[in-house]
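Handout for the seminar on molecular recognition.
Each group receives one record of this type.
Step one: identify the two inputs.
Step two: read the structure output and locate the region that could contact guanine.
Step three: write two sentences on what you found, then compare them with the reference statements printed after the record.
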Amino acid sequence: MMAEIISGKQIAEKVCEEVQEEVDKLKLHGVTPGLAVVLVGDDAASSVYVAMKERAAKSLSIHSRQLTLPKETTSAEVEGVISGLNADPEIHGILVQLPLPEQIDENVILSCIDPAKDVDGFHPLNVGRLSVGEPNVVAPCTPAGVIELLMRSGFDPAGKHVVVVGRSNIVGRPLATLLTSRGRGGNATVTIAHSRSEELSLITKRADILISAVGRANLIDQSMVKPGAVVIDVGVNRVIDHSIPKGYRLVGDVAFQEVSEVASAITPVPGGVGPMTIAMLLKNTAQLASSSLGFRA
Ligand code: GUN
């Protein structure tokens, strides 16, 4: 039996409809949610992601502002831009696209964002709040999107063994925090594996739900997946393909065809986790705008 395909695209459309309702309500209170996206440098993939985020915000009539800075920009200059956004009443969410050029310390920059406008949930204060289980903290967009994808497609992780491959601050770690929390989408037993894990396939084979967030094409093959497991592919990798005009194709971390033969459900790339990340960014923006009015989620 071939695996069910979990359509992130369809589920993201549903989340966006809900966010649209929230945005419309906020507008009745005189507030248009505002999102600022800061892009430093000209990384091709980051430019595409930022354009997609802006387009999605506009489609829900969320006020969106993109600030593109040259790759030589200094840390002090980025900090100056963030201070301006922190003080700007039209902006409720600030996103600094990662990775940043090497002369800039990511942790310094993320710490400059007003925690109340931290739409990614990357400020250390918000990382801590999420980890101690405070309510009304915005969760990082990709992990939050993975949880929504699981819940809305009928694969509640509660009580299951979830193996997350990847320990990044953007995906792996916050995802483990959410999966082990006591709330909706939590209560899982979680193993985090990473590049230094020995015998990776023995670990992944024990997963009821296997989530890969590494960024390596074909990392997860059929032999690494327990029959019947649910497989969520967070990876986005460019592989050269001269047969198409762009010259490359996007693939995930999972060898999709062969893993589909053993998994019970699987997310495609593209069209899986990616659209969910954007939907959750818009949801977080609306949530921060709502909090700025003193409303509780
Ligand atoms: N780079 C890759 N994913 C993300 C994300 O979710 N947020 C930001 N700010 N940068 C990213």
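Reference statements: The longest strand covers residues 34-40. Residues 63 and 87 are 16 Å apart (CA to CA).
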